[in-house]
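Data deposition worksheet. Section B asks for the primary sequence of the deposited chain exactly as it was used as input, without tags or linkers unless they were present during the calculation. Section C holds the resulting structure in token form. Section D is free text for depositor observations; keep each observation to a single sentence. Incomplete worksheets are returned to the depositor.
Section A, Depositor: J.P.
Section B:
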Amino acid sequence: MPASETPASETPGDKAPVVRAGRTEPEQVGIFSFVLENDLFYDTDRRYTNGVRLTYLTPKGGEPAWLRDAFLALPMFNATSDIRVEYGLGQNMYTASDKLQADPPANDRPYAGWLYGSVGVIASTDKGNGSRVLDQLQVSLGVVGPAALAHETQDFIHGIIESPKAQGWDTQLKNEPALQLTYQRSWQSAPFTLPAGFALDATPHAGAALGNVFTFANAGAMLRFGQNLPVDYGSARVQPSLPGSGYFQPVETFGWYLFAGLDGRAVARNIFLDGNSFADSRSVDRRIVVGDVAFGIAVIVQDVRFAYTHVLRTREYETQDEADQFGVFSVSFRF
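Section C:
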């Protein structure tokens, strides 16, 4: 058998080594992802102004046995899936529309920060004929309020880039423990092959979130078009958003795709608009229906995936004067 070939009997769940580009390495490896969402990409610096998230996705079989068994007891997971555990750490920050006002108007978005750690499981299941299903279940625990250190983080970054500092952090939401449960399912179609090595596929999704941070139900879809399409479900994102994942399988040398997607949410709670659950705080009248339009490009070079996404988000509260937009940069690499 030539050295560049992989035995047909091997599957993504096998432990056998894969020979690729003249080197031998284990197929099952961990995946590290970094995500940065920021509106400074479009020179706005307001409302949802920054989100950052670091995650580590275990190799298949690298998770604690008790955790794997607990998730396998749930009806959406089964032992034939490529199941991995994801550990994450993230921080979100929100400011008023005019960050130079020390006492923003009562009808403007409250200042707030959210710092959290998360643990979750993802399961990629091959349904045959090239179609796949991805299930993602995540639990996060953290804090909203001054203890989230959003004020200090933003001042530090703005000092480095010499940007004016936001003046309204004394009005931010009060400290509150934050517990969040999120579930998403994505159905990826078999790729439709086109001439010259091009292909496209579609991935509808649906899900829900429950907690004192976000409570919503959501649905949408994403289209991909490119060459040498990798097995993935879109780049990693910060919730709430069009779902993506750190999960991806490598390509021989180089692959890329353009993508565009929609996500609609029916929102029952958003602490960053509704205010604190158990204490008096600033709040605004939340809109029930919120939508995201996202489009961008992903490039995969062997074991590394880079992606950039432009997001347009509809107005989230009644007195918001216009829709928001922000950029998302992410990088995921297998090691």
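Section D:
The domain at 17-334 is CATH 2.40.128.140 (Lipocalin).
Residues 1-26 have pLDDT under 50 and may be disordered.
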